[in-house]
Design a protein that fits this description.
five-stranded antiparallel β-sheet
Length: 508
């Protein structure tokens, strides 16, 4: 019973009798109660007909020009001519005209912005794509800005997002497969992958998981990710969300599947490995030396954000012999004036820093960045002057926060902050032994993760042939293989030398 539509009348098929079909659709669509459900009755080829559409969801000019005017001015139906074929071939000049007899599907198309035409004598409704609702034009990505590379991002229109990828990859091998999710309010999805490059078992697994989403409504890509990911209780993300078409194209070329969703300006890529989370969108557009340097910085930032607060706590509380004498003297002198313990101060400052970041994100407009910077400076200065916190604690928290900002994936940044607190607790409880045990636990958990059934640390464990562009940015002409997640029969991305002009020059 839980999978039944909310509207009791939204079941059954059209009968071909206008006296029964019209009240069935009108009642199921709540045409009398909903002021935006437009119902236009008229005579079509000497038959009673009605046109249903949603005001504001369709293009009124298209409805008038391609449906109403041709229908009202159409000559009588020739004797012996099939009504459906005549309407489809002679009367309605609509390129995307389809027929549907199931009432539930008719309502889904109606409330998706299509126009529905029923006619006496037809047991199927003619559905025309007349969408004309307000939508945001593709603009610059908000969260994935780059220095070099394209400055174009997805919007909330599924069709526009598919076109963006089609424009960048002009090949029939790019498959766009329509899927729906949601029992009572279906939401359109589009699975995109390169035929032959993506593993067929990966595509089948994504289809299976989407079909198994037993929910009324899926609001966006973030909710879909939580419904189909492998380990929902694990900290690291097992799918990668991007709002950049060029980054989605790179995933497609590596043999991954990209999921686009109506009303969502992000695309989901799966399966992924842990190393995809370190790749910034503009890495490919930079010379390999610059990209390698930036990836080393990101890796250093991750290690600093994850370990620096915990190492400082372990050294200060349990292993002071590991600190130089001047540093140890500074720690003891500053801590003597502070009423809170070093462990408590560190936990409070990490919490306050995270709170300032969250407030900066939620504050509207340009005030967000100002609040994050000014708020941190003002609170830190005031806390030091009031002898509430040690200056060294504030410096450690600030440096670790800068390290987390270097991570290009927002979801990985959040998981990093949670793991940071976990390691601080472990170091505060048992010093370096507790820190090592905490790191060992996190590493074991990381090794046990999968993404759509694929090992999370591919191609290092298990070892597999793959594109060498992993931790470091490698030269383009050395990247002769696709990622380890691609179809092994189409692993090579180049035949022969990639800089073939050099050989020709040497021959001369």
């Amino acid at each position: 019973m839980g999978n039944q539509p909310w509207v009791p009348q939204a079941a059954g098929k059209l009968t071909g009798k206008y006296s029964r079909d019209f009240p069935m659709i009108s009642g199921a669509a709540h045409a009398k109660e909903s002021e935006d459900v437009v119902c236009r009755e008229f005579e079509l080829l000497s038959h009673q007909a009605a046109l249903f559409y949603l005001d504001g969801m369709v293009n009124d000019e298209k409805v008038q020009r391609f449906i109403l005017q041709p229908a009202l001015s159409a000559p009588p139906l020739p004797p012996g001519r099939d009504l459906f074929l005549h309407l489809n071939e002679r009367v309605l000049p609509v390129s995307s005209l389809s027929a549907e007899g199931e009432l539930a599907q008719i309502l889904t198309r109606l409330f998706s912005g299509d126009a529905v035409l029923i006619c006496d004598g037809l047991d199927k409704a003619l559905i025309a794509d007349m969408k004309g609702f307000i939508k945001r034009i593709p603009g610059q990505p908000v969260n994935e800005k780059v220095v070099v590379g394209p400055h174009e991002g997805f919007n909330e229109s599924l069709r526009d997002n598919v076109v963006l990828l089609r424009r960048m990859m002009r090949t029939p091998a790019l498959i766009s497969e329509a899927v729906q999710v949601g029992n009572k309010i279906p939401t359109r999805l589009c699975l995109m992958y390169l035929d032959g490059v993506a593993r067929q078992e990966t595509v089948e697994e994504i289809r299976r998981r989407i079909r198994g989403c037993n929910v009324d409504y899926v609001e966006g890509a973030g909710m879909l990710e939580q419904l189909i990911e492998d380990r929902p209780f694990a900290l690291p993300p097992q799918m990668l969300s991007t709002e950049r078409p060029d980054r989605a194209v790179s995933f497609l070329m590596e043999g991954q599947v990209v999921i686009l969703m109506e009303n969502s300006p992000q695309a989901l890529a799966a399966p992924i490995s842990f190393f995809h989370l370190f790749h910034a969108p503009d890495d490919t557009h930079m010379r390999w030396q610059y990209g390698a340097f930036l990836r080393v910085l990101r890796l250093a930032g991750l290690l600093i954000a994850l370990l620096l607060p915990a190492v400082f706590i372990a050294l200060s509380m349990y292993h002071p012999e590991g600190m130089s004498l001047p540093l140890l003297t500074s720690v003891l002198e500053t801590q003597a004036r502070v009423p809170l313990s070093l462990f408590t101060s560190m936990l409070l400052m990490l919490t306050v820093f995270s709170l300032i970041n969250e407030a900066g994100v939620r504050v509207p407009g340009a005030l967000g960045g100002t609040l994050s910077i000014a708020g941190g400076l003002i609170l830190g200065q005031a806390a030091v002057q009031a002898d509430l916190f040690s200056p060294l604690v504030i410096i450690v928290v600030a440096v670790s926060g800068l390290g987390s900002y270097g991570v290009p994936t927002y979801s990985l940044t959040l998981s990093l902050r949670i793991a940071q607190l976990f390691l601080v607790l472990a170091a505060g409880a048992a010093g370096f032994p507790g820190l090592i045990i905490g790191l060992f636990f996190l590493l074991i958990r990381l090794c046990s993760l999968t993404s759509l059934g694929q090992p999370y640390l591919l191609p290092y464990t298990p070892e597999a042939p793959a594109n060498p562009d992993l931790a470091l940015r490698m030269p383009i002409f050395r990247q002769r293989l696709r990622g380890a997640l691609a179809n092994p029969f189409h692993l090579r991305r180049a035949q022969g030398p990639m800089r073939a002009w050099e050989r020709k020059k040497e021959d001369k």
